[in-house]
Design a protein that fits this description.
The chain is mainly β. Helix content is 0%, strand content 53%. The protein is built from no helices and 17 strands. Strands 9, 12, 13, 16 and 17 form a 5-stranded mixed β-sheet that branches.
Length: 204
């Protein structure tokens, strides 16, 4: 696997469309088109951004009037970020998820975490092979990374309030990988994406 270079005096940033009701979008960074026609559940490539504050404007794809999101984001130096467009149409915003460069892959382990991006789902717990691994993860929040032996796992996303299973998953975790499992969609139609984070492949 080729490693991904960390540009000098910069961070690596990708955009994730996690808003279930929003159409495909274009993303402008300080007025320049940086991500085009990003659809729900899609990621952009990682792009380098130098340390500083950035005006991020998100428009319905193919338009440049009335941004659906307009925010200023602060980017630090020498890190890796996923910027997620989250919420339903009446509550859209960007959140910055750090794919921490200090978390390193190891040959004998897999690392994973869970990030809750379902706008109307309540707080959840996460069971791994029927044992509680993470608890009380609220919307727009995530767990810490946890190291496990590589292999296949049964993951259950359950309501923190009463333990009702709302999303059962079967996942495979490979060695030398760092993953995030993003819980997406509205409460009546939950889904998940298992993403390999940039801290897996960044050159060290």
């Amino acid at each position: 696997m080729d490693c991904m270079k960390m540009p000098k005096d910069s961070s690596l940033v990708r955009v994730f469309h996690a808003s279930p009701q929003a159409p495909a979008v274009d993303v402008y960074v300080n007025g320049d088109l940086s991500v085009e026609n990003l659809k729900f559940m899609d990621f952009s490539q990682y792009i380098p951004l130098k340390e500083g504050d950035y005006n991020i404007d998100v428009y319905v794809a193919g338009t440049k009037e009335n941004p659906v999101i307009s925010q200023v984001l602060e980017i630090d130096d020498s890190d890796i970020y996923t910027v997620a467009a989250t919420g339903n149409l009446d509550d859209l915003s960007l959140i910055v998820i750090e794919d921490s460069i200090s978390q390193q892959p190891f040959d004998m382990y897999s690392f994973f975490r869970v990030v809750h991006l379902s706008p109307d789902a309540p707080a959840v717990d996460v069971l791994v092979n029927d044992k509680k691994a993470f608890e009380d993860i609220e919307f727009r929040k995530g767990s810490m990374y946890q190291g496990v032996s590589p292999g296949q796992y049964s993951i259950k996303i359950v309501l923190n309030s009463d333990g009702t299973v709302v999303l059962p998953l079967k996942i495979t975790l490979k060695p030398n990988r760092i993953y995030t499992i993003y819980v997406l969609g509205n409460a009546s139609n939950l889904s998940a994406i298992q993403s390999v984070d940039g801290n897996t492949t960044v050159c060290r």
